[in-house]
Specification:
17% strand, Rossmann fold, 10 helices, globular, alpha/beta
């Protein structure tokens, strides 16, 4: 049902979801202001603890499937991308086995149901009412860009791949091999906050953290098509949306 690849590398990171606001500087920013959270300690599918559901990011990822493949961390945004109405494949990459397993479980439940309502009922049984409500809200807000039938098509055609890889290391090349024509969107969540030491120093020196961030940028921009987009977060608040060229020229992830 799924294609699973990549290397076994220890570590973890979490995803922050958010909603739209404008900012200066050429990057669209996504600020946190919704009140719907996902209780990470009680559900197998975990968004960032205390995170908020969002309006814009699901549609951005879903619409990107019309242009090509999408790479995303393992949280609800992966499910949203897999419901995109285009024909691009969805590659889910994460260092958290629990997050990968959670997304696989939610998607697998879609294979067992003939319609979206039945799927969401099974999600509620398996993952609890809090997460089911969280997922239902995301779908209702972005329904024009999502398709349960396309989710089922991707499952049948094995167009959802899971990778347990470090996006700041050479193992990211495994994803590039699976997306030879380039990626139309990358949702990297707040990985750089861990790599750079904002959320976890991880025993590394400043220079080692900066080297990881430099590799992270090189790997992600290397995947992107020239008309692709990158969504990432470098603070606890806003997410940023960059075009390919803006990411190349203006995204400067910095260690702390």
């Amino acid at each position: 049902m799924f294609r699973i690849g990549g290397l076994s590398i220890s570590g973890s990171h979490s995803g922050v979801s958010s909603s739209y606001s404008d900012s200066a500087g050429g990057a669209t920013r996504y600020g946190l202001h919704d009140n719907i959270g996902c209780r990470a300690n009680t559900t197998k599918v975990s968004d960032f603890v205390g995170s908020k559901s969002n309006n814009a990011i699901p549609s951005l990822l879903a619409n990107a499937t019309h242009k090509g493949d999408v790479v995303t961390v393992a949280n609800s945004m992966a499910v949203m991308a897999a419901m995109g109405q285009g024909h691009g494949k969805v590659v889910v990459s994460d260092l958290s086995d629990a997050h990968l397993a959670g997304v696989k479980s939610v998607i697998a439940l879609a294979e067992k149901n003939h319609n979206q309502d039945g799927w969401l009922k099974d999600v509620k049984k398996e993952h609890g009412s809090s997460y089911a409500s969280h997922l239902s809200l995301l779908i209702s807000r972005n329904g024009d860009d999502l398709s349960f039938e396309q989710l089922q098509r991707r499952i049948r055609n094995q167009d959802i791949a899971f990778y347990h890889v470090d996006l700041a290391s050479s193992s990211a090349s495994e994803i590039e091999k699976d997306t030879p024509h380039g990626v139309s969107a990358v949702y990297a969540s707040n990985i750089e906050m861990y790599l750079g030491g904002f959320l976890s120093k991880d025993g590394k020196s400043f220079s080692e953290r900066q080297q990881s961030l430099d590799s992270f940028k090189e790997n992600l921009t290397g995947m992107l098509k020239h008309d692709g987009i990158l969504i990432h977060g470098n603070t606890m608040g806003p997410m940023e949306l960059h075009s390919y060229h803006d990411a190349i020229n203006n995204w400067q992830p910095a260690a702390t």
